[in-house]
Design goal:
Elements: E1 3-7, E2 10-13, E3 18-25, E4 34-39, E5 46-51, E6 57-59, E7 67-72, E8 77-82, E9 91-97, E10 100-101, E11 105-110
Parallel strand pairs: 2-11
Antiparallel strand pairs: 1-3, 3-8, 4-5, 4-9, 5-6, 7-8, 9-10, 9-11
Length: 111
């Protein structure tokens, strides 16, 4: 059974940092890309960052240079380091692996 559990969200002032974590249970982790999405109130869910099984990364233009995605294959964990946060980064952040989703973690950035 595959489960994804996000953590690390919270309230932070603009310019601050947060580190999100995604714990992935199940053997699919090693062989699949992991993607972070976010959904702002009233908006569609959008891709934030992705990391392949080999460690290649890609980012939405809006977060390039500020966010860093990484993975620890030994721990079945994926991280999203978010620096220089802006109010427009506010939203629920979700971890995705293949067809599986976590429950999300809320990030709120105050101005």
């Amino acid at each position: 059974q595959v489960q994804l559990v996000e953590s690390g969200g919270g309230l932070v002032q603009a310019g601050g940092s947060l580190r999100l974590s995604c714990a992935v249970s199940g053997s699919i982790f090693r062989f699949n890309a992991i993607t972070w999405y976010r959904q702002a109130p009233g908006k569609q869910r959008s891709l934030v960052a992705v990391i392949t099984s080999g460690g290649s990364t890609n980012y939405a233009d809006s977060v390039k240079g500020r966010f860093t995605i990484s993975r620890d294959n030994a721990k079945n964990m994926v991280y999203l380091q978010m620096n220089s946060l802006k109010p427009e980064d506010t939203g629920a952040y979700y971890c995705n692996c293949n067809s599986y989703w976590g429950q999300g973690t809320q990030v709120t950035v105050s101005s």
